[in-house]
Sequence to fold (151 residues):
Amino acid sequence: MARLLDHFDERDILLHVRARDKRQLFEAIGLHMEWAHGIPPDSVATALQRREAAGTTALGHGVAIPHARVKALEQVLVLYARLSPPIAFDTPDGQPVSDVVCLMVPAPATQEHLDMLSQVAALFSEEGFRAALHRRTDAAQIRETFGAWTR
Fold:
């Protein structure tokens, strides 16, 4: 099973992200992926928007896990974004989303994709993890928190 932390780089931890809506968030993620990984931003934003149109990726408790297969990728990439302020995201509990974990996988990475989605959903179902994450103020601390909870 793929470990989430194996694909999670500190440079892909974004704090104080401002977006009006999901579309703007996905565009910002695309621009970041271009800067950090050289991936065409439109391919990321379009893939995320297409997947979200098929059904919400929001879990509730202020958490969403947008995910998509991106043709331009050669490896799995994980991005964490803390939104400020939170945005509407068609959540099951009606709460706006402030924590976003975005999974982007190469087109053939089906099982790895599912394994990582399961890991993220399990993490964020734990109130203690969410509380610990919200106490962290920088990328290194956030990555460390993910690592401590995924052992």
